[in-house]
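Re: that chain you flagged

S.,

Sorry for the slow reply, it's been a week of failed gels. I finally had a moment to sit down with the sequence you sent. For the record, here it is as I used it:
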Amino acid sequence: MRRSSAFLLASALLSHLTLATAQYGGLQPPPGSGPPRSSSSSSAHLNPTLNGTAAAAARAKHQKLDHVLVAHAILGTLAFLAFMPAALLVGRWLRRFGLWLWLHQLLNALAAASVVAAFGLGYYHVEQEPGSGHWDGVHPR
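Prediction finished late last night. Pasting the structure tokens below so you have them in one place:
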């Protein structure tokens, strides 16, 4: 029975990871932030920010947003696939032991804190995305 539960958990995590990778295109740098171009490049004189601080700042901001997105995904996954099921199982199967209520409450508190933090990170990520305007008005139907 343990093997099937572990298999189900692993397949759920893999499907979430695959879906997130497909939706967000993986953790890729922003366009135009590839390897630095040499000064002899024909486009370097047209756009001086390719090698300048603006491109470096854009890369740093994008990397920070990638880390925020990964933290959002990890916290949400831990809350819904680890802490909440563990709290349910502790409440159901460990009642005969003395510390079950304390452990049940601890796991539920961790789950609640993870959900709040994951939502906050998701909100922050959407707000920091350039030109998103996601929260500016109602969604079209």
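What I noticed first: Residues 53-131 form one domain.

Talk soon,
D.
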